[in-house]
Design brief:
This protein has 345 residues and is of the alpha+beta class. It has 14 helices and 8 strands. The protein has helices spanning 7-18, 30-40, 45-58, 62-66, 70-75, 84-99, 108-112, 119-130, 139-148, 160-170, 176-189, 208-212, 269-276, 331-344, and strands at residues 228-239, 242-247, 258-259, 262-264, 281-282, 288-293, 297-307, 316-319. Strands 1, 2, 3, 4, 5, 6, 7 and 8 form an 8-stranded mixed β-sheet that branches.
Length: 345
């Protein structure tokens, strides 16, 4: 590891001069740093900025968030996706309020025990907020160290995190938080997945992949994600000037969020009526077809107008278009709701 002795110093110097301005870098509040790390998982920085600022304006501290309902909190997350993140974060913040007097624990083991906190979040928050010498290994860090060592270790392996954490710890300086951020910044802005800007890299003299021209082949990821495709019939069921929505189960994908009634694409009208306990007239052709991508899943949806005169009972609810903002809809349903709003105009 020829980069061991000067790598950290060079990287930190570059970071201090070139780091991007971000609102969560302007605070030492561990709650706000924690929030930013949760939001940034699987989400681009430019997307997170506006969500972070709006969230902090409404929930500026542990107590404000802990005392809010999950429905309201989720509204401020709407559009970010991966909704289990906000549910776990809300639960963990309530744990902090009760167990630690509303102060994020500075003990790494105590923090790791909170709902939804994994090794990456632990390392990032504990190092940035409290300067604990812990690694924060994400995709950017995998890529940086795979290229530095021309390392073909499979990053989809269950052993990858430990493998790359050990590399980080070999060069971890006293400024642990800045170092972890610098590694992530390098991966996000210079050592990018495609077309890395190697000539501008502050540590290219240490990089074996750069020396051998092998940057584009690293890191190695052998496993391929197999995406499941599910086909649904989505019903916009009108009654007078309202439409029926239903709440999803409390567990699983998009838990507790609201949607239009969804059924298997091949489900017959009679079976739908029996399940919903109402009589329906469903138009023969869908008025729109749409799809939504999740990480391992794709929904393909045919959306039909339908009509009923029957009373509606839970778990279904009738709402008008101007009531939409009172309910937490996933992006897939928000798009359909927009179609509905246009239809009503």
């Amino acid at each position: 590891m020829k980069y061991k002795y000067t790598f950290s110093t060079q990287l930190l110097s570059w970071f201090n001069q070139n780091k991007r301005e971000m609102p969560w870098r302007e605070t030492n509040d561990p709650y706000k740093i924690w929030l930013s790390e949760v939001m940034l998982q699987q989400t681009q920085v430019n997307t997170v900025r506006a969500y972070y600022n709006r969230f902090i304006e409404r929930f500026p501290d542990i107590d404000t968030l802990a005392e809010a309902s999950i429905d309201e909190v989720s509204k401020y997350w709407e559009g970010l996706g991966y909704y289990s993140r906000v549910r776990n974060f809300h639960t963990a913040v309530r744990e902090v309020q009760v167990q630690y007097a509303s102060k994020v624990p500075d003990d790494p083991k105590a923090f790791l025990a909170l709902k939804g906190v994994g090794p990456y979040t632990q390392g990032a928050v504990m190092s940035i907020a409290f300067n604990h010498q812990l690694p924060a290994v994400d995709g950017n860090v995998y890529r940086v160290f795979a290229r530095l060592d021309n390392d073909t270790f499979d990053i989809s392996s269950s052993r990858a995190r430990k493998h790359f954490e050990s590399k980080v710890m070999e060069v971890m300086p006293e400024q642990a938080g800045d170092f972890n951020e610098a590694l992530m910044e390098l991966g996000a802005t210079v050592c990018t997945p495609k077309n890395p800007v190697c000539l501008l890299c502050p540590v290219n003299e240490h990089c074996e992949a750069y020396e051998q021209g092998n940057m584009q082949n690293l890191p190695v990821k052998l496993k391929k994600i197999k995406k499941t495709v599910q086909h649904y019939k989505v019903l916009l069921i009108h009654k007078d000037d309202q439409v029926i929505i239903q709440r999803r189960p409390d567990n699983g994908l998009l838990a507790s969020m609201w949607q239009f009634p969804m059924f298997d694409i091949d489900m017959h009208v009679g079976d739908i009526e029996e399940q919903m306990d109402i009589s329906l007239h469903i138009e023969r052709e869908p008025f729109v077809k749409t799809k939504h991508q999740f990480t391992h899943l794709e929904w393909q949806m045919e959306v039909y107008h339908a009509y009923t005169k029957d009373d509606v009972e839970l778990p279904y609810k009738l709402i008008s278009p101007d009531e939409k903002d009172a309910y937490n809809f996933p992006v897939s349903m928000t798009k359909i709701f927009n179609y509905y709003s246009e239809f009503k105009q």
